[in-house]
Amino acid sequence: LHAQNVPNHFLSNQVYQPIDDDHLQAGSFLILFDHSNAPDGTFAASLINTLIREYYRQRGSDRLATFEHTLIRVNEQIKQYGRGLEQPFEFNGVIVLVADNEIHLTHIGSPVAFLYRDTHLIRLAEPSEGIEDAVIPQFSVITSGEIRNDDILILGAGLEKPDFAETDLAFALRQLPLFEAGRAYARILKDRFERAAEAILTRFHSGEANQTYQVYVDRSLETTPEKLVRTKKSAIRHLGFIANGFGFVYEQARRL
After folding, report:
1. DSSP per residue over 37-81, as a string?
2. Is 0.85 topped by the overall pTM?
3. CA-to-CA distance for 123 and 102, rounded, in angstroms?
4. For 142-174, what is each residue's pLDDT tens digit?
């Protein structure tokens, strides 16, 4: 997807569940990429193709080892692409392998990645910090863990402000069914005035991703009534801040 009114910004996601029996035993993928400073979405799409092709062509019982070898090939493609750029490589991405009641997650940049379990949020990806512009980021750390029935995994990208209030996120994920949680998450994005963002919400059952809901928010696609409602909410919020400010000044003056 090309984020409207956000030049050279492309969002890509894929929920890949193979239908071939041999490949099905190897697991499935949840993939979310956010590529800025890009002429088009070709690179992100080719990276997804490389990941899927390289993973399922390998034969081995150790799925984690196969995943690690696949990421070596993906990282080589990223290096090759990054060396030819004249500007910094701006890329946020998260890849999740689901296999044998486990998830294996790796990321680049600052995507949102949480596991919601028993009303508690578990952060699965910490924002990458301290990376110089000249350094091309890589998928290097894999976080693995067991999944349980009714666990919800949320992956997000394209956020200008990824510092979510976890209470808001937990509230969204408590909504049932899953598409209501997705809608609640989308409302949070709109209230935060995100220009363009995407997310994948997945609920697990019996070790498989049995429900998936995808979210895409693009403010440029809002209808006129939606824009009016958002503007009204913004005005009310700012008037509240101003009123609180006057109240604070009045209290301070009265103390003096």
Report:
1. S-SSSHHHHHHHHHHHHHHHH---S-HHHHHHHHHHHHHHHHHHH
2. no
3. 16
4. 999 999 999 999 998 877 766 666 788 888 888
